[in-house]
Amino acid sequence: MRKILVVEDEDAIREVLALNLRRAGYEVTEAASAEQALAVFSAAAGFDVAILDIMLPGMNGFSLCETLRRDSSEIGIIMLSAKAMEQDKVRGLSIGADDYMTKPFSISELLARVEAIARRVSHSSEEPEGAESEGRRVSGIFVLDPKSRGLYKNGKMIDLTQVEFQIMELFFSNPGTALVREKILEGVWGKNYYGDVKIVDVNIRRLRMKIEDEPSTPKHILTVWGYGYRWNA
């Protein structure tokens, strides 16, 4: 059973989210603060997805997101906020969140996004033995390893989130091909994703910070102006 961590200080909202997630078949752990969430979170806990409200008492959702992401590159993170400001979305995605939803939202939409992220996390944990040799993809100085869910550059491993890894899988499968943003969005987040295509740009920016020697003048993830991005090994 997939495990979900719900961190929301408003009792009514948290209880509604937890109730609907349990009805959908998830095992749910509730926390009313970041501090409570950290007390129950560990690699051994095996959470697939964390749903984090931004406006929490004490440590806020942004700080909690950063802490969880440092501890785990695999967990899926969805941030919730009553704010619709663009900088909040960009900040949340830039520090490691996989998705962002603005209140109010429909429960069906939330469940669809949780399911999409949970599938990615589940897929990463089900790689067969020997995948590190059988499934590795090589592109120039880069090696993409499905077993470790990591990217190697000149033999040095670069930790990737699940979303980042899937973007790189898409690039490695389409070398030298200009990919429109909508294709990347569909390939990584799924056909039924309700969010903004700008989530692609934020994750590309984050990937460049990790793999480019000079992120401001990228040589590998190139922008195709007015269209999307192209991988150049």
Salient structural properties:
alpha/beta, 233 residues, five-stranded parallel β-sheet, 9 helices, four-stranded antiparallel β-sheet, globular
What's the gist of this structure?
The chain has helices spanning 11-23, 34-40, 61-71, 86-94, 107-124, 131-134, 162-173, 181-189, 198-211, and strands at 3-7, 27-31, 49-53, 76-81, 99-102, 137-139, 142-145, 150-153, 156-159, 178-180, 221-224, 228-231. It is an alpha/beta fold.
Give the number of DSSP strands.
12
Helix percentage range: 40-55%
The radius of gyration over CA amounts to 18 Å
Low-confidence runs (pLDDT<50, min 5 residues)? 126-133
Number of separate helices: 9
Topology:
Layout: E1 3-7, H1 11-23, E2 27-31, H2 34-40, E3 49-53, H3 61-71, E4 76-81, H4 86-94, E5 99-102, H5 107-124, H6 131-134, E6 137-139, E7 142-145, E8 150-153, E9 156-159, H7 162-173, E10 178-180, H8 181-189, H9 198-211, E11 221-224, E12 228-231
Parallel strand pairs: 1-2, 1-3, 3-4, 4-5
Antiparallel strand pairs: 6-7, 7-8, 8-9, 10-12, 11-12
Helix pairs in contact: 7-8
